[in-house]
């Protein structure tokens, strides 16, 4: 066995002796000390092996890059000591001028890179799925490390132009589109649907901004039961979007199935609204303008005329 000189410190396994169990109280609270020029709450070191301090004082002042190696060596011999606790001890002893502990290096292989190249960046859901698969292989890694690796591989998507911040002019354009569907508003303003909803919520609007009717409103106005409205939806006569009955589907119902609505039992203002706005009882919309299609009776004289002209030329 190779003998060690008196000046050379022992390894963490030899210095610390038997391992000690780390209690929860060691990492959940402690006194406040000034470390590297700022106040910091340090954990309690009741279970910290004092012999490890000599090991830290010998290796860390030599080279700042050895901090990660020292933490890994102590973790290998004392897995019950967390990295945060080891780093707090290093800062407590004044052996570093860093304000945060060094990042952990990850050994990336083709397996993890292939997972990212295959799924990351297609959509938000696929990116989240790729991160979960990588973290399943390496539970001690953080999601930020996976995102950083995807950025290194060039898999992240960047906006061609930065998004324009909301202004009073854009708010005016947004409010002018009241009654339109969410997809239409997002396409016209070149914004995401989440951005539109968040801005409307900030302006005090809800789902009623996009038009349509609540089921309970139709029940009260048309004097029908909620089961009847749901039956119309199941038959395809009414369409429900975002939990609201669309105006176009109600207009279609009033045109093609007016007998389903108890028109005579409705209030006069509701009757006028159905006639003027919902085209109640008008049937299929009449086409206005353009050339009228000739009937069979009108085409008969033209056919006889063409036949007569052909006999003369023949």
Labels describing this entry:
single chain; 314 residues; mainly alpha; two-stranded antiparallel ribbon; 15 helices; 4 strands
SSE order and pairing:
Elements: H1 12-16, E1 32-35, E2 38-41, H2 51-59, H3 66-77, H4 83-92, H5 110-119, H6 124-137, H7 143-152, H8 168-176, H9 182-189, H10 193-202, H11 215-222, H12 226-235, E3 240-241, E4 244-245, H13 247-256, H14 268-276, H15 296-313
What would a concise description of this structure say?
Helix content is 48%, strand content 4%. With 314 residues, the protein is mainly alpha-helical.
What would your notes on this structure say?
The chain is 48% helix and 4% strand. It has 314 residues and is mainly alpha-helical. Strands 1-2 form a two-stranded antiparallel ribbon. A two-stranded antiparallel sheet has the order 3-4. It has 4 domains: 81 residues, no CATH class; 43 residues, no CATH class; 39 residues; 62 residues, no CATH class. The termini are far apart. It is built from 15 helices and 4 strands. The longest helix has 18 residues. α5 packs antiparallel against α6.
- SS-based structural class? mainly alpha
- Looking at how many chains there are and whether they match, the oligomeric state comes to single chain
Kindly report the spatial arrangement of strands forming the biggest sheet.
1-2
- Tally of individual helices: 15
Question: What is the general shape?
Answer: elongated
Tell me the distance between the termini. Answer: 124 Å
The parts where pLDDT drops under 50 for at least 5 residues are 15-31
**Rg over C-alpha atoms, rounded to the nearest angstrom:** 38 Å
């Amino acid at each position: 066995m190779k003998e060690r000189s008196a000046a050379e410190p022992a390894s963490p396994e030899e210095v610390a002796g038997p391992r000690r169990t780390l209690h929860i109280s060691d990492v959940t609270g402690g006194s406040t000390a000034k470390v590297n020029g700022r106040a910091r709450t340090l954990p309690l070191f009741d279970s910290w092996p004092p012999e490890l301090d000599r090991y830290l004082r010998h290796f860390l002042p030599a080279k700042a890059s050895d901090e990660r190696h020292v933490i890994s060596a102590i973790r290998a011999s004392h897995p019950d000591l967390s990295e945060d606790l080891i780093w707090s001890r290093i800062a407590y002893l004044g052996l570093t001028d860093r304000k945060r502990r060094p990042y952990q290096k990850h050994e990336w292989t083709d397996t993890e890179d292939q997972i990212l190249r295959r799924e990351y960046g297609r959509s938000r859901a696929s990116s989240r799925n790729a991160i979960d698969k990588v973290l399943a292989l390496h539970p001690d890694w953080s999601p930020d490390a996976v995102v950083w690796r995807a950025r290194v591989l060039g898999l992240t998507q960047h906006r061609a132009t930065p998004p324009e911040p909301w202004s009073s002019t854009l708010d005016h354009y947004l409010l002018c589109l009241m009654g339109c569907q969410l997809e239409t508003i997002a396409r016209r303003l070149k914004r995401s649907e989440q951005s539109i909803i968040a801005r409307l919520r900030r302006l005090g609007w809800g789902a009623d901004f996009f038009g349509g009717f609540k089921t309970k409103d139709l029940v009260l106005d048309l004097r029908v039961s909620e089961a009847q409205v749901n039956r119309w939806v199941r038959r395809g006569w009414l369409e429900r979007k975002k939990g609201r009955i669309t105006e176009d589907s109600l207009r279609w119902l009033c045109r093609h199935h007016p007998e389903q609505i108890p028109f005579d039992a409705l209030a006069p203002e509701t009757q006028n609204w159905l006639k003027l706005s919902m085209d109640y009882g008008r049937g299929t919309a009449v086409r206005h303008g353009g050339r009228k299609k000739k009937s069979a009776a009108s085409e008969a004289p033209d056919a006889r005329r063409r036949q007569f002209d052909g006999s003369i030329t023949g």
